[in-house]
Amino acid sequence: MADDLLRFHELTVAAIDPLTDDAVGITLDVPPDLADSFRWTPGQHVTVRAEIGGEDIRRSYSICADASGGDLRIGVKRIPGGAFSTFATTDLSAGDRLDVMPPVGEFTHAPGQAGHFVAIAAGSGITPVLSMIATSLGSSDDVQWTLLYGNRSSRSIMFLEELEALKDRFTARFQMLHVLSREPHQVPLFQGRIDAGKLRSLLGTLIDPTTIEGWYLCGPLG
User: Fold this and answer.
1) The dihedral of CA 141, 146, 151, 155: what is its sign?
2) Which of 115, 122, 138, 200 could tie 150 with a disulfide, CB 3.0–4.6 Å?
């Protein structure tokens, strides 16, 4: 098992789903003989490798699926000049094969924990958080989550349908708050960037910090 963590395995791309104008969800088919090696704890990531333009390109992406039984899935958002993200969002197709290392990482949330947890995410930082929230809500009736999610606009929100489905399914235990930096909102609190001032305002109105068991923060570089 330890050796498996240090080497790549060739996996088939099972599906590619558009998430926004510049982001996709990539589902990878894990064969039965690799199932144990590719089990993950919510929040972990995988390293993927592909030859692009004659170069060996490697990138790490967080797993965004429910760890209790979901398919291995990553979210990729295209960044200007990004070799792999451009390839993944424009050229990669179902049936293609990628080299993938087994999941690793310590930014995790163990399923089954009770209490109220808050996740603050921005942009593609939602990917590990989605896995945490989906797995946690489905594994315990004694857990509650609040998600504060920052994006440029409603069109740029990754995994919006999945998040809305979780909200509908766990209405009493999942609160989702969107903050948009480039889209007007009738409530000023939900417009702009998530900075210290906005967080203080939210903590004073919609989130009671005395009830929080744990906090998770994840955003893209920059």
Assistant:
1) positive
2) 122
Question: What is the model's pTM?
Answer: 0.92
- What's the domain count of the chain? 2
137 and 202 inside one domain:
yes
Q: Which positions ≥6 away from 180 have C-beta within 8 Å?
A: 150, 151, 152, 153, 154, 190, 191
Answer yes or no: do 158 and 188 share one domain.
yes
Nearest to 119 by CA among 31, 171, 182, 42: 42
Whether 105 is in a domain gets the answer: no
- pLDDT tens digits, the chain, 222 residues: what are they? 555 667 999 999 999 999 999 999 999 999 999 999 999 999 999 999 999 999 999 999 999 999 998 799 999 999 999 999 999 999 999 999 999 999 999 999 998 999 999 999 999 999 999 999 999 999 999 999 999 999 999 999 999 999 999 999 999 999 999 999 988 888 888 998 898 988 888 887 888 889 899 999 998 865
Q: Which residues contact 221 (CB under 8 A, 6 or more apart)?
A: none
Indicate if 155 and 209 belong to the same structural domain.
yes
